[in-house]
Amino acid sequence: MWRRVHRYIVFKIDEKTGLVAVDKVGGAGESYYDLADSLPDYECRYAIFDFDFVTVPQDLLSLPERRGRLSCFSWH
């Protein structure tokens, strides 16, 4: 199994060059709230967040499973 190094990455488009640049990288222990706090109020940003969750069993024979999904955000 792999080990998480980063929880999220925030990108911005550099106004001078027009290229995508990394604005902030969140550590493995950071949360969604840390991502939300890192977004500026009046500037556009794009983010990818690694979201963890636990599934709910649909029957008595199944066990809960830990899962993860990548979520993409556009902040305007």
TrEMBL record:
GO terms for molecular function: actin binding. The keyword Cell membrane does not apply. InterPro entries: ADF-H, ADF-H/Gelsolin-like_dom_sf, ADF/Cofilin. GO terms for biological process: actin filament depolymerization. One of its GO terms (cellular component) is actin cytoskeleton. Keywords: Actin-binding. Residues 1-76 form the ADF-H domain. It holds the Pfam family Cofilin_ADF. Belongs to the actin-binding proteins ADF family. PANTHER family: COFILIN-RELATED. This is ADF-H domain-containing protein.
